[in-house]
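User: Good morning. I'm curious how cobalt (II) ion would be positioned relative to this chain. Could you predict the structure with it bound?
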Amino acid sequence: MNREVARIITAHHQEEGGGFIVRRPLPTRGVDVIDPFLLIDELGPVTYQPGQAIGAPDHPHRGFETVSYILEGDLEHEDSAGHKGKLVSGDVQWMTAGAGIVHSEMPSRQLQESGGRVHGFQVWVNLPSRLKMTQPRYQEVSGAKIPTAQTPDGKARVRVIAGEALGAKAVIETHTPIVYQDWSLEPGADVTVDIGADHQVLAYVFDGAIQIEGRRVAEGQLAVLGAGNAVRLQGDSSPGRLLLLAGVPHREPVARYGPFVMNTEREIHDAIRDFQSGRMGEITRTAKVG
Ligand code: CO
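Assistant: Good morning! Here's the predicted structure, ligand included:
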């Protein structure tokens, strides 16, 4: 049975971190969580002038996973577990914060100095209580290694970041079953993706428009899908592009405070204490400053 659109949420504009503008469909007024997803941020697209590009300097996370996907521009990552990397167009970083990590996400020096276009996503995936204090894990996959597939007519193309579509299987491992796919649909595209009936399914359109079971979903809209075991995506009158997200809900209480997402208020207090006392570590930088 194909899933129908149960609800459409229009993304709002939000200023984040050091002041960058994001388009955010989740959380939104009256909707804190769409289990197991906690946050969906579209960064830009924005063109920075020289000296204007900004990022998120050292900050902690505990209890969930942050997934960064860069479409344009770049992002340099550094964290307290010693990971360091630079993401460019097409690259994905799947970071399991677990018990706690301190990281920074900044545009490269070149992007800061010369300016340039930035477009990407950050999605927060919740962890079930049994995994909230798991050891931090870091998976960085270059765009060239993200599996891709297309329908025989070439009108529907997909980059499979998590899950499986058209026979292509993700290389990224997830702690719980998650689907994270970047679909491009031309007019006339018609593709059906099997997604288990136990999953919550979301489709966020970030370019043009698409159709789901006859309902049009346009740029900046998040479609929350109803029950079923498949999703039928069709092209609209012009090309469209979307993130298809799905996961099995944890059905657990969510206690949330900024960068910490736990099950109880008590655990949030513990997280704040552990961060303040340095138990989530700090980023050791060898480069001399000043
Ligand atoms: Co972060």
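Residues 265-276 form the longest helix (12 residues). Residues 56, 59, 61, 66, 103, 105 surround cobalt (II) ion (CB under 6 Å).
Let me know if you'd like a different ligand tried.
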